[in-house]
Amino acid sequence: MRGPQWLDDGMPHIWLPYTQMQTVLPPLPAVRTSGCDIHLADGRVLVDGIASWWTACHGYNHPHIREAVSAQLGRMPHVMFGGLVHEPALTLATRLAAILPGDLERVFFTDSGSVAVEVAIKMAIQYWINRGVSGRNRLLAFRGGYHGDTLATMAVCDPEEGMHALFSGVLPQHYIVDLPRDEASFRALETLLSESGDEIAAILVEPMIQGAGGMLFHGPDVLRRLRTLADRYGVLLIFDEIFTGFGRTGTMFACEQADVVPDIMTLSKALTAGTMALAATVTRSHVFEAFLSDNPLHALMHGPTFMANPLACACANASLDLFATEPRLQQVARISAQMTEELEACRGLPNVRDVRVMGAVGVVELDAIADMNRLKAALIALGVWVRPFRTIIYLTPAFTVRPEELSRLTSAIAQVIRDGAAG
Question: Can you state which reaction this protein catalyses (predicted)?
Answer without folding.
Answer: (8S)-8-amino-7-oxononanoate + S-adenosyl-L-methionine = S-adenosyl-4-methylsulfanyl-2-oxobutanoate + (7R,8S)-7,8-diammoniononanoate
